[in-house]
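Format notes (please read before filing issues)

Several people have asked whether sequences and structure tokens are stored in separate files. They are not. Every record keeps both together, in the order shown below: the sequence lines, then the token lines. Line labels are part of the format and must not be stripped during preprocessing.
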Amino acid sequence: YDIVSNRIFEITAAGAVAIVQRMPFVEEHFGDAVLYIDHTRSDKELYQDIVEHMDWIRNNPEKATEKAQKANQILKDKFSAEQMLDRFI
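Then the structure lines:
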């Protein structure tokens, strides 16, 4: 339903690599700075997708760190209190 939970903001604020379901809001704002899963797949397929993402993170620590830092910067640039207040005012 394209209802975004706070998890995307909490994960990126913590500087971790986010693994999230595909939805327009996240794709529009975070693009390739996060890893995606397709929630319409079977439980077994979802599990395998997550395992593959975790393997990628473990096997590519530098790229994973870059991805996490990029998502964190997007969070700061678009969704920080300062940015939100500036847009509100």
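For reference, the curators noted about this record: Strands lie at 19-21, 35-37. The chain has a mean pLDDT of 92.
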